Amino acid sequence: MHHSALYRLPQPLINAMETFAPTVHYLTGEVIHVRGEHKPGLSIVKSGTVRVGNYGKDGRYCMTRLLHAGETFGEFTLFATLPRTHNAEAASNSEVIQLDKTLFDVFCKEHPELTAWMLRSLAVKLHDSLEMLDDVRRLPLHVRAAKTLLSLARQSNMTRVIIKQNELSDVLGVTVLSAHQSLKKLTSIGLITIGYGYIDIVSLETIETWTEEQASITAV
Q1: By residue range, what is the domain housing residue 28?
Q2: Domain stops at, among 120, 154, 183
Q3: Where are the beta strands (DSSP E) in 80-123?
Q4: Which residues, other chains included, contact 198 with Cβ-Cβ below 8 Å and sequence gap of 6+?
Q5: Which residue range or ranges hold the Cyclic nucleotide-binding domain (predicted)?
């Protein structure tokens, strides 16, 4: 199974869930859950987009990820009974399939392939998170930006990454100006082109080779 496939639930499982669990409709900006909630459950983005992040004491929002159709969240609440680590809000009008703990357990008995997929998916997400932590410590910002865009492109299987520069700055944890300057560097190198609300990667193979060279460690 390709790395990117482990970010999005297989469509047959989504189809089965639609007849098994409720689909909740959220308007843009509506809260799905807040940091600290303990209620366990699995959420699957059926349509639209969901942003996951946290608010600082100063009210500034820092987005961690923008989730698209097929992506899941809430796994830690099920497997480790941990509280929610982030706020989840609808970034656009969205539909989210919601399985509480009881429904999840029953569904997994009927569809054990879900548990197997989730374990592989969590392993991939943990791997990517460790890579990201290493990048923050070692790499200049424009290389981190390139790796982030490459990761997002892989997850969507598209060379066009639908993301605004302020959203990218949140993901990178830097100012919008810093993110903009990094994108300008990547544009001047010929790795990307920038549009309104999106960034096009000229060649996945080229940007992958370039980021591996810049990382100065053995590729995995």
Answers
A1: 3-120
A2: 120
A3: 87-90, 94-100
A4: 160, 161, 162, 163
A5: 5-104
pTM value is 0.76
DSSP 148-182: HHHHHHHHHT-SEE---HHHHHHHHTS-HHHHHHH
Average pLDDT, the chain: 89
Domain match, 182 and 116 both: no
**Phi-psi group of 183: left, alpha or beta (phi > 0 → left; psi -120 to 50 → alpha; rest → beta):** alpha
**Pairwise CA distance, residues 107 & 146, whole Å:** 39
Q: Is the pLDDT of residue 63 over 70?
A: yes
**Other residues' Cβ atoms within 10 Å of the Cβ of residue 213:** 10
Tokens of 50: 């969901």
Tokens of 67: 């989730």
Closest by CA to 216, choosing from 141, 135, 145, is 135
- Two structure tokens written together for 14: 């989504």
Give the start-end residues of each E strand in the chain: 23-26, 31-33, 41-47, 50-55, 61-67, 72-73, 87-90, 94-100, 160-161, 192-195, 198-201
> What does the alpha-carbon distance between residue 28 and residue 91 come to, in Å, rounded to a whole number?
5
CATH number of the domain residue 151 falls in:
1.10.10.10
